[in-house]
Amino acid sequence: MIKILLFINLFLTYTLIAQENYPFEDGEQLEYKVHYGPLVAGTASLNVSIEKESYRFYAEGKSTGLFNFFFKVRDSYESITAKNILRPIYFNRLVKEGTYTKQENVFFDYDLNLAESTRDTIALPKNPQDILSMFYYLRAQNQDSLSLGETIPLQVYLDDSFMHSELIYDGKDTIKTKFGLTPSTKWIPQLESGRVFNDEYGMTVWISDDENKIPLRIEAKVMVGSIKMDLVKHKGLKNKLNTLQK
């Protein structure tokens, strides 16, 4: 489930704004409730901290309730990036889903232009990101001149390779959240079909249309059924969340 949360955090154009204007800061915490069809299936979270001259981004997802008996999930992701340009230095991923377990430790060497993992060494593409750092890198982009249907290409490290993806801007919307009616922008990310998703464009993401640019809601069609994630708690936002009413 945390993979779904991270796949959606893709948006905006190509010019990184000044560091002091990043839409996140030390101590930001986002918490989500995950529904599988009508049932509550689990929780997910995203966290930001600053360590010396680096950002540490951490995400985790877990199943709850009856889903622990049928398909227990305990996923965690960690990304260390440089503060000034938000590109990954180190990435760690530990996935425990049912009987499946996988761990990745990746070092990004920009002098040698290589990504060195526990299993392989591969060349870095232009502007590489990992599946967690991309969220914060793209949150920090300038989105002042977006047009409906605009497509943004991405290259993201996952499963010992770089995944080519794209994100389609689908206009503005206002959705009902726990915090009130919330202005948002809609995005449709291209996903890898056949493993988790049954349609490469089977997901819609709503991002807050304010200075925070945080994901508010994610709806996705998976191989069996559908998943919905909603933001239920936030702490340490750099700016007040923009809502129209309680």
Parts with pLDDT < 50 across at least 5 consecutive residues = 6-19, 193-198
Strand content: over 45%
> Widest sheet: strand order?
8-7-6-5-4-3-2-1-15-14-13-12-11-10-9
Q: Which H/E pattern describes the elements? A: HEEEHEEEEEEHEEEEEE
Q: What is the mean pLDDT?
A: 84
How would you describe this structure to a colleague?
- This protein has 246 residues and is mostly beta strands.
- It has one domain.
- The protein is 7% helix and 52% strand.
- It has three helices and 15 strands.
- Strands 8-7-6-5-4-3-2-1-15-14-13-12-11-10-9 form a 15-stranded mixed sheet.
- The longest helix has 7 residues, at 133-139.
- The relative contact order is 0.20.
Write the SSE topology.
Layout: H1 2-7, E1 29-36, E2 39-51, E3 54-63, H2 67-70, E4 73-82, E5 88-97, E6 100-109, E7 114-116, E8 121-123, E9 129-130, H3 133-139, E10 151-158, E11 161-177, E12 180-189, E13 203-208, E14 215-221, E15 226-235
Parallel strand pairs: 9-10
Antiparallel strand pairs: 1-2, 1-15, 2-3, 3-4, 4-5, 5-6, 6-7, 7-8, 10-11, 11-12, 12-13, 13-14, 14-15
Quick description:
With 246 residues, the protein is mainly beta. The chain is 7% helix and 52% strand. The protein has one domain (2-235).
Q: What brief labels describe this structure?
A:
single chain; 246 residues; mainly beta; 15-stranded mixed β-sheet; 15 strands; globular
